[in-house]
Amino acid sequence: ENKNRMIRAAIVGTGFVAHEHIQALQRARERVEVVGAMEINETALHTFCDTYGISSRYTDLGKLLKETRPDIVHICTPPALHFDLGVQCMRAGAWVLAEKPALGSLREVDQIRQIEKETGTFFSSVYQWRFGSAAGHMKKLIEEETMGKALVAVSQTYWYRDADYYAVPWRGTWSSELGGASVSQGIHANDFFLWLLGDWEQVSAAADTLDRN
């Protein structure tokens, strides 16, 4: 396959985080062509596409996949939709980059792995902490045991989100976000530790609801 050909990318969902995705894709315009966007809210869809110069606009994923034939689809919808949308994209021959949390259960992970084998496509998620220069330096120090062998790690996420953030209907719920702050914010630190230190032998965790239900 020609490694120099343009990668065809599409975006599903045009909410807050989709702006980060489209801007990253546009910065890679020498390698990537954005071939379409899909959103069930037509007003939001047209606003997003007008802002970023996307001409192919869809409210139906099946139609987008058939007409634009993307190589990769960025899924920027509420998390509970990631699995079904991802499977549809993979069955159509597209790789998937889904926002976090990618999936809601180990059963879904197993199913995605099986579909990867069947289709030759891949499903991945957004864990950008792995790619920072400080992260790379820290991983090198750990691997070389510069400060000795790492035995215990403590993950504390102090990021603040105000009431407006959680006023979005799908945020902070089991049914639509697949959890609360641990999957919307703490998931980055947890993945970072997994990448740095490898599989855990033992995990201890505590959570409490101090404010927003």
Question: Please, could you describe this protein's structure?
Answer:
By secondary structure, the chain is of the alpha/beta class. 43% of the residues lie in helices and 12% in strands. The chain is built from ten helices and six strands, in the order E-H-E-H-E-H-E-H-E-H-E-H-H-H-H-H. It has a six-stranded parallel β-sheet with strand order 3-2-1-4-5-6, with helices on both faces. Helix 1 links the parallel strand 1 (7-12) and strand 2 (32-38). Helix 6 runs parallel beside helix 10 (186-197). The longest helix is centred in the middle third of the chain and has 14 residues, at 106-119. The protein is globular. 25% of the residues are buried.
DSSP E strands, number:
6
What structural class results from the helix and strand content? alpha/beta
Share of helical residues: 40-55%
What is the CA–CA distance across the termini? 51 Å
Helices, by number, come to 10
The largest sheet has its strands arranged as 3-2-1-4-5-6
Instruction: Kindly report the average pLDDT value.
Output: 93
Strand content: 5-15%
- Radius of gyration using CA atoms only: 19 Å
Uncertain parts: none
Task: Give the SSE string.
Answer: EHEHEHEHEHEHHHHH
Report the principal-axis shape.
Answer: globular
Largest sheet: 6 strands, parallel
Short description:
This protein is of the alpha/beta class and 213 residues long. The protein has helices at 16-27, 42-52, 61-68, 82-91, 106-119, 133-143, 163-167, 174-177, 181-184, 186-197; strands spanning 7-12, 32-38, 57-58, 72-75, 95-98, 123-125.
